[in-house]
Amino acid sequence: MKKISVIILGLFATTVYAGECDINIEATATMAYNTKEITVKKSCEEVTLNFKNNGTLPKAVMGHNVVITKKPDMDAVLKDGLAAGLNSNYVKAKDARVVVATNVIGGGESTSVKFKSAAFNTNDPYVFVCSFPGHSSVMKGNVKFN
After folding, report:
1. What is the predicted pLDDT for the residue at 29?
2. How many CB atoms are closer than 10 A to CB 105?
3. What would the DSSP string read from start to end of 54-120?
4. Domains of the chain: which residue ranges?
5. Is the separation of the CB atoms in 139 and 64 below 8 Å?
6. At a CB cut-off of 8 Å and minimum separation 6, what does 4 contact?
7. Which of 25, 29, 43, 91 has its CB surrounded by the most CB atoms within 10 Å?
8. What are the pLDDT digits (tens) for 46-55?
9. Contact between residue 95 and residue 119 where contact means Cβ atoms under 8 Å apart
């Protein structure tokens, strides 16, 4: 019985830990994220970014995504993303300045992407931003680490 209890406790602890390594962000057609700050836990080797667009419009009209990059690189990443276009999710292919990016999604859609927390230099400032044209001025926030 003691052995079974230890196994069950171990499974429960893993489930709780995995949830702590998830970041959940939502957006609407009003061009707003539901948060201005996200936290990447240093204790999480792998992080899952879950993104949901609560709007109703298709992605070609009012799509949203989440791109994480260093704050000083944001403008250049956005400029190169604009040139890359919607088919590339407004992110330049293999852009080393981008830590992680979700696909552009339309209203009612969700997406997830996994990334390694070791990809960050926690001494540098990072931001998350929507790279869909015209959205970055209001759809952005800071990335914190703990």
Report:
1. 75
2. 21
3. ---S-HHHH-B--EEEEGGGHHHHHHHHHHH-GGGTTS-TT-TTEEEEPPPB-TT-EEEEEEEGGGS
4. 22-145
5. yes
6. none
7. 91
8. 999 999 999 9
9. no
